[in-house]
Amino acid sequence: MKDADVLRIAFSGELITERISILNNELASKFGEDSWRDLVLDFQGVSRIDSRGITFCIRMSKELQRRNLHLEIQVNQTLYRIFEQTNLITPLNVRIAG
């Protein structure tokens, strides 16, 4: 991934139902830009994720695949365990940030 081709969006706090629309709006505004091929969702600062947050990640992965774009989700150790328990590490390209 070349830095010029990467769109990085950092999100902190709780990735829960009430806050998903914030992230949806942020990403919707970026889909019209042609300058990026890779999206990195930086969730290192996320303290909690609910089922709607996980569903958001799955939906985003499918949308990016449809557009022939690449997704990487960078997480902290706590979120990594949640994605691991739901068998989503590989399908969603989840990495421990470091």
Characterise the protein shown here.
The protein has three helices and four strands, in the order E-H-E-H-E-H-E. With 98 residues, the protein is α/β, with parallel strands linked by helices. The chain has a single domain, classed as STAS domain (Transcription Regulator spoIIAA), CATH 3.30.750. Helix 2 (51-66) links the parallel strand 2 and strand 3. It is globular and about 35 Å long. It starts with 5 loop residues before the first strand and ends with a strand.
Low-confidence stretches: none
> Distance between the terminal alpha carbons, to the nearest Å?
16 Å
Instruction: Note the quaternary state here.
Output: single chain
Overall geometric form: globular
Secondary-structure element order, N to C? EHEHEHE
Share of helix among residues?
25-40%
Rg from Cα? 13 Å
The strand line-up of the biggest sheet is 1-2-3-4
Whole-number total of structural domains? 1
> Class, according to the CATH hierarchy?
Alpha Beta
The CATH superfamily turns out to be: STAS domain
What characteristics describe this protein?
Transcription Regulator spoIIAA, globular, four-stranded parallel beta sheet, alpha/beta
Question: Short description, anyone?
Answer:
The protein has 98 residues and is of the alpha/beta class. The chain is 37% helix and 32% strand.
Secondary-structure blueprint of this entry?
Elements: E1 6-15, H1 20-30, E2 38-49, H2 51-66, E3 70-75, H3 77-85, E4 94-96
Parallel strand pairs: 1-2, 2-3, 3-4
